[in-house]
Specification:
This protein is an alpha/beta fold. It has 13 helices and 14 strands. The strands form three sheets. Strands 1, 2, 8, 9, 10, 11, 12, 13 and 14 form a nine-stranded mixed sheet that branches. A three-stranded antiparallel sheet has the order 4-5-6, with helices on one face. A two-stranded antiparallel sheet has the order 3-7.
């Protein structure tokens, strides 16, 4: 949890223990283990240099050939097969989680959807991650899956389901609300409608009102709800940032202070250069609009830096104009980026 500029609290849902996450093969996280195998290199809690061998199954895949390694998936495959590399895999997951905890994560988002195609393997993987994260005794797991049975497996594996956050319920996934009500835990409620992503502000607000009504009708308290108005990249829709921010304001006005408002805030910068700057400014703008929660990487997106950026600086103003729609299509931002004017603030 972090404090915003106005003194309000901002709940952090750490997003990095996700089977889709990649690191570059050419980057500092990948090297050669003492036994000669390609490996993810990391430091354990005690500062020991350790190596997680990259499974052959990943090396045969398209991502590896494209110069990327799905590092969380590598750890999960080692754990699921109980390979000799399992102790290193467990230590690696613990290291990822501890970094997020140290950076202030209140919840740690766990997603295993891409570890395998079959739901049974996904459920086993989710149980493993819940057991590992809860074993660290601090931040609670957020169970994130497109398959409700995987979320249910995580609930069943938890030693204290009431601490969990379920991600997420929507008009098409009302069963997740039933799970949250049964577990007496928090839940992300999405503003997605029955036909997919919302269109514009009014659609977001109307969908949010419907899903909140469904949740409270099941006995869930407003304080247990994290309303997600859904972030769409500005590279896809130049009005996306402004629409999200206005939806946040209206949802806050509608439901008051008790309810939480969240979102995958880093999604806004997909396809743009200078992503850290854009993300930082968007988190700050979202908090000012009324969001008090975010699905973010607290290691990359240090909240002290986020809420300490100079709002009068040229870099902040350019990013804000990109996000609020003033600089439609980001022409001013892109020109400044290419000219190197933003380098010191990236």
């Amino acid at each position: 949890m972090r404090t915003t500029r106005s003194g309000g609290m901002f709940l952090i849902i750490g997003e990095n223990i996700h089977a889709t996450r990649t690191v570059l093969r050419s980057g500092r996280h990948v090297g050669t283990a003492p036994d000669g195998r390609d490996a993810i290199q990391f430091e354990s809690e005690g500062g020991e240099r350790r190596y997680l061998a990259i499974p052959e199954a990943l090396k045969d895949g398209q991502d590896f050939r494209a110069g990327k390694v799905k590092h969380v998936q590598a750890a999960l495959l080692a754990l699921l097969t109980d390979s000799p590399d399992a102790p290193d895999a467990r230590a690696y997951v613990e290291t990822l989680a501890r970094r997020q905890i140290k950076a202030g994560a209140d919840f740690i988002d766990l997603n295993v959807d891409e570890v395998a195609q079959d739901a049974a393997t996904q459920r086993t993987a989710m149980r493993l991650l819940v057991e590992i994260v809860e074993g660290l005794g601090s931040s609670a797991p957020a169970l994130d899956s497109s398959n409700s049975t995987v979320i249910q497996a995580g609930i069943e594996a938890s030693k204290d389901p009431s601490r969990l956050l379920l991600n997420s319920a929507s008009a098409e996934r009302l069963d997740v609300l039933d799970m949250a009500a049964s577990a007496h835990c928090a839940v992300v409620v999405s503003a997605a409608g029955t036909t997919g992503l919302p269109s514009g502000v009014d659609d977001r607000v109307a969908n949010a009102e419907k899903i909140v009504a469904e949740a409270t009708g099941r006995g869930l308290a407003p304080a247990a709800l994290h309303v997600d108005p859904l972030v769409i990249p500005v590279a896809v829709n130049p009005e996306a940032g402004a629409e999200f921010l206005e939806a946040v304001r209206r949802i806050r006005d509608t439901f008051g202070v008790e309810i939480h408002i969240t979102g995958g805030l880093s999604n806004v910068s997909f396809g743009m250069p200078g992503r850290r700057l854009v993300n930082d400014v968007f988190i700050d703008m979202a908090a000012e609009a009324g969001a008090d929660s975010g699905i973010v990487d607290p290691v990359a997106g240090d909240m002290g830096r986020v809420f300490g950026r100079d709002r009068g600086s040229r870099s902040y103003i350019l990013a804000a104009n990109l996000l609020n729609g003033t600089d439609q299509y980001g022409m001013d931002f892109l020109e400044a980026f290419r000219a190197g004017e933003l380098a010191q603030d990236l």
